[in-house]
Amino acid sequence: MAFAQATPATPATPGIDKRQAEQQKRIDQGVKSGQLTGREAARLEKGQAKVQRMEDKAKADGVVTAKERKQITHEQDKQSRRIAREKHDRQRK
Fold first, then answer.
1. What CA–CA distance (Å, rounded) separates 10 from 87?
2. DSSP single-letter state for residue 93
3. From CA 44, how far away is CA 31, in angstroms rounded?
4. CA distance 10 to 28
5. Stated pTM of the model
6. What pLDDT does 8 receive?
7. Terminal-to-terminal C-alpha distance of the chain
8. Cα within 13 Å of Cα(72), Cβ side
9. What stretches of the chain show up as alpha helix (H) in DSSP?
10. CA gap 45, 21 in Å, rounded
11. 3-state secondary structure of 7
């Protein structure tokens, strides 16, 4: 009798993923509307990439712990504030 070996599933983080997508949409909209300069957008993109790296690292062992989720959420909160601050500052032309 043969048994199929189950492959470990990647832990689901739909809340984190959805928020990342929403924050990316805010950055894209800011560039399109002129609220963000190219330099500001690049800096914010770096912040988004940091959050993604944190999420990838948390998922690497197959389990995203409550502590890891809290750390990722905290970083997303900081990133959200940065996006808002940059979108509403005065642009130098």
1. 34
2. -
3. 11
4. 28
5. 0.84
6. 60
7. 72
8. 25
9. 14-33, 38-59, 66-87
10. 12
11. coil
Q: Which residues of the chain have pLDDT under 70?
A: 1-9, 92-93
Please give the structure tokens belonging to residue 61. 């062992």
79 with 47: CB under 8 angstroms?
yes
Q: What torsion, rounded to 10 degrees, do the Cα atoms 35, 14, 8, 59 define?
A: 40
Length of the chain: 93
Q: Which of 26, 30, 47, 50 is nearest to 38 (CA)?
A: 30
- Count Cα atoms within 13 angstroms, Cβ side, for 86: 26
Amino acid type, 90: R
